[in-house]
Amino acid sequence: MSVHSDVDPAVSPGTDPEQPSRMSRRSLLRGAAGAGAVGLVAAAGAGAVVAAARPETKAATPAAALPPNAGPLVVYLRDARTGDLEVLAGTTKVRLHDPALAAQLLRTVH
Amino acid sequence: MSSHREAPEISKDPVADSTDLYAFVSPDQPDTVTLIANYIPLEGPAGGPNFYAFGDDVLYEILVDNNGDGQADVTYQFSFQTALSDPNTFLYNTGPILSLDSPNWNRRQTYTVTQVKNGQSDVLGSNLDCPPCNIGPLSTPDYPKLAQSAVHSISGGIKVFAGQRAEGFYVDLGAIFDLGDLRPFENLHAQYGMHIFSKGAAGVNATAQVNVHSIAIQVPISQLLWGSPHGKVTDQGSVIGVWTTASRQQAQVWDSQTNQNTCCGPWRQVSRLGNPLINEVIISLGQKDFWNSQQPDNDKQFASHYAQPELAGLLPALYPGVFPNLEKVVQAGTARADLEAVLLTGIPSGIIPGFQNFTGAVQADLLRLNTAIPPSAKPNQLGLLGGDAAGFPNGRRVFDDVVTVELRAIAGVTLPLVDSSFKPDGAASLVTDGLTASSVPSGFLNHFPYLGVPYSGFETPAH
Predict the structure, then answer these.
(1) Does A61 touch chain B (CB under 8 A)?
(2) Would you call A11 and B267 a contact, using CB atoms and an 8 Å cutoff?
């Protein structure tokens, strides 16, 4: 898995560009199945867009372990075949290339 | 239009759609420059109950390059916050709004101004009131006074205003977008063989009686320049390049619990405006939203559009026999170095006696203003073409007739600046859409924020 972060400090003072690099496949999947804290936007195959949340599933991460002021987080799966993902939170974007993670994410919504 | 609804994607996002940009030495405060960026095209004045407002989720910026690299050296950022006093009424206001703190005003907007300079962000003002929209004699009985009270003095000797104004840009959209009809000369139009027009007609201002939302800032000139020699017209350091942008966070998701959009991700530029009519007329349809996303210092990639504007080819085709000299230039494939200079680098010294607004070799679409040129005592709305160096394309004043200036430039009147052997067609210096600044019913103010009092919904039903 490769990771690329993208933040423009000129227009987003105060963001922590290090924060996204702590994101792992495991934490992302925990979030995707979390208690409404995560919005998942997945574009699969020929451009279909699916929005999903699993409020019925209990979050695995205690709230105290979350970063302070954690706001919404969106995962955009651009291409399921290559696992091209963008994880957006705050004013930050992290780009991932992880086909296995993409497949796991898709299984959570299909 | 100048830049109203000019690109497919941004036309669907009015609050982030920049429409016009102005930059001029303030006529009543000549030690300052006034910068105005307009957003939200074609506001019907009666558009209630949710009257128009800036986007709380949009980052608006006015950017200034002062060293010719096409990159921002001084940026003013504007971010807005909307508050609803009483969610249990459908009304924008529950009585007359006589002051900005009126308890009768239910949905108000405030904003924060941040300056970014030398990598440092400083909040210059916060919790600044916007005025309400102009509704009518019962709701906003003394609108000019009410709106003027929303002119704020903030840190650094700077004045700001953000709110509704009358549309100051005038253009005969209905005719121009009907296959290039210029009403005063429509009898000369090829008319596709239909013989509809046997004589010319007066222009019709399609933007009369609509409003926009303006972000205006008046800044001491000294704060916009850097250490390079400046103060004289011949000093390259006297010239600034200005543009405006609107940015949105990359992701926007409808939250079904709050029934609102929620946003996250990096800010992405979705709208850009420097010179008027560029993305509207010069840039091709397939590249317009891409152009909006780009930074001026990357504008070399679009230079061919400026050098070979499609409109220059259309004029001889639509008006057969009227532009024979222009037609030869087009057929020869001659690059329009005049347009590239005016729009992408500024005009160097030695071309027009006593004038320059050159920023250097970097091609960047900027509204260039030589701040050492004082305001004109007798302004000519044709700006530099009319012998008035204080007007467009040396910056742009609120009343400048940019449609006529750019039509004539593209028709060839500026080509002799770089090719003395070229003789413009007689029609080139006459072509116009038939409008003048007097076509704007509101008129203009002679003081900040200069654009006229917006049309009220009561007096101006949407049409």
Answers:
(1) no
(2) yes
CA atoms of B195 and B206, how far apart (whole Å)? 24
B247 at the A interface (CB within 8 A)?
A: yes
Q: Which of A83, A75, A87 is nearest to A102 (CA)?
A: A83
A6-58 pLDDT, tens digit per residue, is 554 344 333 333 333 444 555 444 444 433 333 454 433 323 333 333 333 44
Q: So what's the pLDDT on residue B7?
A: 85
A99 touches chain B (CB under 8 A): no
Q: Å from B54 to nearest chain A CA?
A: 18
**Model confidence, pTM:** 0.90
Chain B hits for A86, CB-CB cut-off 8 Å, are 250, 265
The answer to whether the CB atoms of B121 and A7 lie below 8 A apart is no
User: Edge to edge, what strands does the sheet with A92-97 contain?
Assistant: A2-6, A92-97, A84-89, A73-79, A39-44, A48-52
Chain A partners within 8 Å of B61 (Cβ): 11
DSSP letters along B288-329, please?
HHHHHHS-GGGGGGGHHHHHS-HHHHHHHHHSTTT-HHHHHH
User: How far is residue B204's CA from residue B202's CA, in Å, rounded to a whole number?
Assistant: 7
User: How many helices and strands (H and E) does chain A possess?
Assistant: 2, 6
Q: Do A36 and B77 touch (CB under 8 A)?
A: no
Contact A36, A52 (CB under 8 A): no
Q: Can you give the three-state secondary structure of B11-34, one letter per residue?
A: HHCHHHCEEEEEEEECCCCCCEEE
Return the residue of A nearest to B114 by Cα.
A11
User: Where are the domains positioned within chain B?
Assistant: 10-169+209-300+349-391
This complex has an ipTM of: 0.81
Residue-wise pLDDT tens digits, B413-446: 999 999 999 999 999 999 999 999 999 999 999 9
Using the Cβ of A19 and the Cβ atoms of chain B, whether some distance falls under 8 Å is answered with: no
pLDDT in tens, B294-338: 999 999 999 999 999 999 999 999 999 999 999 999 999 999 999
Closest chain A CA to residue B248:
A91
Mean pLDDT confidence for B403-421: 97
Cβ–Cβ of B265/A39 closer than 8 Å?
A: no
